[in-house]
Specification:
Strand content of chain B: 15-25%
Strand order of the largest sheet of chain B: 6-7-8-3-9-10
Order of helices and strands of chain B: EEEHEEHEHHHHEHEHEEHHEEE
CATH superfamily of one domain in chain B: P-loop containing nucleotide triphosphate hydrolases
Radius of gyration of chain A: 21 Å
Helix content of chain A: over 70%
Number of helices of chain B: 10
Structural class of chain B: alpha/beta
Order of helices and strands of chain A: HHHHHHHHHH
Helix content of chain B: 25-40%
Oligomer: heterodimer
Number of helices of chain A: 10
CATH class of chain A: Mainly Alpha
Shape of chain B: globular
Largest sheet of chain B: 6 strands, mixed
CATH topology of chain A: MetI-like fold
């Protein structure tokens, strides 16, 4: 109990707001690495996921890639990428590693969002004379948005926790307190910063949960008593049957 | 006029859905393609708007091979109603109805104005326009589907088991409504169903299919009921089981004879006899009295 109190005392000490290791600075670093990594992963994985979801081609490949990539040990991946890219370009290496970790979830969210749509709706849209782009932009993207946001949510959660490791290769972020405290056995600092990271992860998750809920198209929630709710590994489909990972 | 010229469709897995089908569907008439599942009727319907490409033969609309037309423009020029309506769940009813005009570049306000008129036409309250499809009953959704198909005022209306997902009472209602609309609009309707009674209710012309897209018999409902081509057709329309053979039962003290089925169960009362109009579907409804 005293340890927890010590940790909280460390966390709320006025010293945490000053100096080179001020929490706000490290928090912004942490969020910066998380944000940029999820953004880059989204820029890569969403178009690919939409292509797979829209055409139905390459689905098996995507499923196996995302399945395998989910099992990647984040720490090992980070070190390998740093060694490959070079320690002089550690920030780049770290972002590459985080992007690789984020891609599977975003990819799965993007293609499963489209795949979960009732085929008859898409068939009808095509039969009315929508072009393939119109089907994608006016039907598949809006209806697949909740699942895509679910994928982004998973990705952000994974990255925000993994960015803690960035401190190990000298890149700052909130992990710096943990890596600094371990050799000195400063348990209050270790626990205090760990609590901070957990709270940050929960906040990020909550923000995405809210976005996900808001993104469910009104016509889907109207006339239904139960709301859909996201959960790992993939949120429930807003319509149709959930995707089985085969 | 829609013309099928020795059209075939073999799917990549080797299944033959349609084999050498030739038929002319007259302009302004309702042609019903009827058969059990796997008879290729939906495949044929979807060839008209190129949702399915034939592996052999041609489909012509007013003499033009559809394969030469731009797919998207062709589809926008043809109304399409499908089972369970296939409405866009994230758009309001009114925007669903206005889909095709908006795709064609009609201003949204104008398209909506016309869409409201169409709701009137298919017998829906305008207030439903602001709702989402999931807030409507199955029958109402089907009406929206019909309104959407009519929105760009197409010459041709394709209907793929449009009333298959609604209960029998609503279905009967929708069938009558369709007949009323058709009298008013005179579209070239191609209607697919597996329900022979529905076929006889809706059709000017019926094409009955066997498995594999082979025509068993084509003709008006009256011709088919009166002279089934073979045992398959007779069994399909229910003539072999005596379901279509009705009798008049004269009762003492009443000039109006009772119409009864083969087992003597009363069906109705004979009010008067009518001259059969050639090709009229309605006159043959309910079977021929023997």
């Amino acid at each position: 109990m005293t340890l927890v109190l010590d940790a909280l005392a460390w966390l709320f000490s006025p010293e945490r707001l000053t100096g080179s290791n001020a929490i706000p600075t490290r928090l912004l670093e942490h969020l910066f690495y998380t944000g940029i990594s999820v953004l880059v992963a989204a820029l890569i994985a969403i178009p690919v996921g939409y292509l797979i979801g829209h055409t139905g081609r390459g689905r098996e490949l995507a499923v196996s890639i995302s399945g395998a990539a989910r099992a990647l040990p984040s720490f090992g991946l980070l070190l390998v990428v740093v060694l490959l890219v070079g320690t002089t370009r550690a920030p780049l290496a770290a972002v590459v590693a985080f992007v690789l970790l984020a891609i599977p979830s975003v990819l799965a969210g993007a293609y499963s969002g489209i795949e979960a749509i009732d085929r008859r709706i898409i068939d009808a849209a095509r039969a009315q004379g929508m072009t393939e782009w119109q089907i994608l932009l006016r039907v598949e993207v809006p209806l697949g948005l909740p699942l895509l946001l679910g994928g982004l949510r998973n990705a952000a959660l994974q990255v925000v926790s993994t960015v803690t490791l960035a401190a190990y290769i000298g890149l700052g972020g909130l992990g710096i307190y943990i890596f600094r405290a371990i050799p000195l056995r400063r348990y209050d600092e270790m626990l205090g910063s760990a609590i901070l990271i957990v709270v940050l992860a929960l906040v990020v998750d909550a923000v995405f949960a809210l976005l996900q809920r808001l993104s469910v198209p009104r016509g889907i929630t109207a006339g239904r008593a139960t709301r859909t709710r996201g959960s790992t590994p993939g949120p429930r489909a807003p319509m149709g049957s959930p995707i089985a990972y085969k | 006029m829609i013309e099928f010229r020795s059209v075939s469709k073999q799917f990549p897995d080797g299944t033959v859905a349609v084999d050498d089908f030739s038929h002319v569907l007259p302009t302004g008439k309702a042609t019903v393609l009827v058969g059990s599942s796997g008879s290729g009727k939906t495949t044929l319907l979807r060839m008209i708007n190129r949702m399915v490409e034939p592996t052999g033969g041609q489909v012509l609309i007013d003499g033009t091979d559809v394969a030469k037309l731009d797919r998207v423009r062709l589809r926008r020029s043809i109304g399409y109603v499908l089972q369970a309506a296939g409405l866009l769940p994230h758009r309001r009813v009114i925007d669903n109805v206005a889909t095709v005009p908006v795709l064609n570049g009609v201003r949204k306000a104008e398209a909506r104005e016309r869409a409201y008129e169409l709701l009137d036409k298919v017998g829906l309250d305008r207030a439903l326009g602001e709702r989402y499809p999931s807030q409507l009953s199955g029958g109402q959704q089907q009406r929206v589907g019909v309104a959407r198909a009519l929105a760009a005022d197409p010459e041709i209306l394709l209907m793929d088991e449009p009333f298959g997902a609604v209960d029998p009472i609503v279905r009967a209602d929708l069938q009558l409504e369709l007949n009323r609309l058709q009298r008013e609009l005179g579209k070239t309707i191609v209607f697919v169903t597996h329900d022979i009674d529905e076929a006889f209710t809706v059709a000017d012309q019926v094409v009955i299919f066997r498995k594999g897209g082979v025509v068993a018999q084509a003709g008006t409902p009256a011709e088919i009921l009166a002279h089934p081509a073979d045992d398959f057709v007779a069994s399909f329309v229910g003539a072999d089981a005596g379901r279509r053979s009705l009798q008049l039962q004269h009762r003492p003290g009443d000039d109006r004879p009772l119409v009864v089925d083969r087992d003597g169960r009363p069906i109705g009362v004979l009010e008067s006899t009518v001259e059969a109009a050639p090709g009229a579907g309605a006159s043959a409804q309910g079977g021929t009295a023997t």
